[in-house]
Amino acid sequence: MLLWEYVWPLLCRWTPKPFNRWRLFILRLNGCKITGTPFVHQRARIDHPWNLSLCHLASIGERAHLYCLAEVIVEYGAIVAQEVYLCTGTHDFNNPVRPLQTAPIRIGSDSFIGARSFVLPGITIGEGAVIGACSVVTRSVDSSMYVAGNPAKILRPKKFT
Q1: 62 half-sphere exposure, CB direction, 13 A CA radius
Q2: N or C, which terminus of the chain has less Cβ within 10 Å?
């Protein structure tokens, strides 16, 4: 973990956008599971990359923070916009010791998480779902739904033409 704290800033953060393959190479070397060619912005922050899975055409935006204490899966074509926080860790506040609790996050295919949204541990974002900017996602989101707010609430199902 200590090594990773130096690897990303020294080898990736300074790279221009076209150096995506280099960043993916560094992520793979550090245990990230990658299929196809996703995009990871050079200023994204990824903690514990060995718990991250990125699928083809997935996109991680500028200053997005993926706190991967548990598994985080970003499926085919999913977009995690700028400054989104995916958090897989919390604490048990009913216990006076407040032990760490972790739960995985899954971002479904072709879904979109708007800028500055926060996704809590154990959440699944369904295929094709859209999360509005600045939303706090406290419950899993069904496929093809628009949700937004704090806490995020269903706005309407996605309409296909």
Answers
A1: 4
A2: C
What are the catalytic residues?
91
CA atoms within 13 A on the CB side of 96: 0
Tokens of 53: 């899975």
pLDDT in tens, 95-125: 999 999 999 999 999 999 999 999 999 999 9
Residue-wise pLDDT tens digits, 7-27: 999 999 999 999 999 999 999
Torsion angle (degrees, nearest 10) of CA 37, 42, 43, 47:
60
Read off the pTM. Answer: 0.93
Query: What are 146's strand-pairing partners?
Result: 130, 156
Question: How many CA atoms lie less than 13 Å away from 148 in the CB half-sphere?
Answer: 11
3-state secondary structure of 30: coil
Q: How far apart (Å, rounded) are the C-alpha atoms in residues 76 and 20?
A: 17
Return the sign of the alpha-carbon dihedral for residues 14, 24, 111, 73: negative
- The first and second tokens of residue 81, run together, are 């916009």
